[in-house]
Design brief:
- This protein is an alpha+beta fold.
- About 60% of the residues lie in helices and about 15% in strands.
- α14 runs parallel beside α15 and α15 packs antiparallel against α18.
- It is rod-shaped and about 170 Å long.
Amino acid sequence: MIIDNPDMFILSFHQAILMVIASIIILYSSIKHRELFRWLPAYILLTIALFYNSIWYFTDSPRIISHVFYLFSIISILSSIYFEYYSIFIKPKQKAGKLKKFSAITIFFNPIILGIEILVLCLVIISLIMLIRIYLKKKTLIHFFLFSSLFVVTLTIISMITQDFNVIGSIEFQYSSSFVFIAFLIATSFASIIDQKLRESEKKIRESESFFRNIAENIDAGLTIIENNKVIYLNERLSEILGYSKKDLMKLTMMDIALIEEKDRLKMFLESIENNKASLNKIDVWISTKKGEKRCIHNHYAKVIANGNKTTRYILTADITDRKIFEKKLKESEENYKKAYERVNLYKDLFTHNMNNILHAFMTSLDIFNLEFKQGKNKYNIPEFQKGLKEQIKRGVNLINAVQKFSEIEESKKKLKSINIMNVLNEAIQIVKEEFIDKRIDTQINSENKKIFILADEFLIDVFINIVTNAVKHNINQDVEIFVNISETNNGGIHCLKMEFIDNGRGIPDSMKKNIFLRGIRGNKSVSGLGLGLSILINILDKYGAKIKVEDRIKDDHSQGSNFILLFHKMV
């Protein structure tokens, strides 16, 4: 059989083979991607049209048959475009059957092929406009190549119309555009596979993101994600812990909500984290919520660097306020237990030491009395003996009272209040004078103000009594002089009230000055003479936050008397 134009036959046959390949690819893609089924009829019809076009070269079959199948394939493509357009941009109230009915009517509306071709051309142009909108909405490779294919179809239909008018070159142009059209259809087939992979990847990403969000929103810790110093995610738990809304937290930093006393420490830590110099990647810090509530949070930092320029930080935040409060109470409990233990030992040490002295004095007095009685020397010294016994009994009573007073101070939970020290000081001096009636006590108070207030309690008088009593008791002079100088001073940047108790007693050697104030803490028995009262004094002053020290009345000569100095926080 002789073919009039073998080159055109080969060209047509190659188009048919390529279209078969494209149909197989689109069929494979349609199995996994259901939306592509609507495009499959167009591929099949176009394949049939191309085969009829090839057969035309060596048979008497009318060429119009291939044109009809070609038009049917175009109608199928247009129907698919219309269907997708309506499904995306119009809320369909009609069933898909109406659209098919519309397509069938369109196909068979005009029996004249030329009229059909012109009508189809108009529909193709409308479909091009629709496909542009679909592409702008979905932005997929499939729709891009479909648009390109449909554009080539427009040119092909124009060439088919010009063939009817026997325009020279129309057939060649149709073949060329058909090749381009087939190429775009094949590209569309491959694009469908690529698009399917992209959709699967996007689905996995969405599932991964959904999984991550589900975990992030249900963990007990707060989560912050910072990418290139910009917060990109905060979970709801973080908002609950910090006491701020998510909107507020997007604008705030840790430095903004940290307590003032925490800012310097936090700043140093964050700088070390930023410069990768932190020895630890976690920190406990106290913050203030939006309502002013104080909370302690634990932040754990993790840093991820991707592609060399993308830095992502993950911060886990936990509310450890209750734990910190418990730890504080536990520490206080341990300190209280330690103090109680030391207090018991102190009571035992002081009471035993002083009571042994009292009992020893009792035994000594009895031994002397018995010895003198046997020698007949004690007939007229009974009053003196009784006086000695009374003094020892008084010492015992004072010891018991002192221990009781010591216990009251330790257990006192009363709050400090504003007290005028001048009234308390005068009362204490009067009590001491009444106790030591056998001595002439001259006191002088030097102060510019008659009303000076400090924060103290009812035990303040015991402090003054103790100091004045020791100044009198350990003074070998019959005439006791005590000067009390009251002034204001600055101690380490703190406005303080300074009280100096200066006496003319025998003084305290330098070797003892460092140890006399240790007795209240360690029960140091190397210092004698100052008694349990000094331990009471130290405990009272600790409660006030006050300080005590002792100096020589005359520098470098302790024998000329002592100067006990008290420093109180002065009320403004």
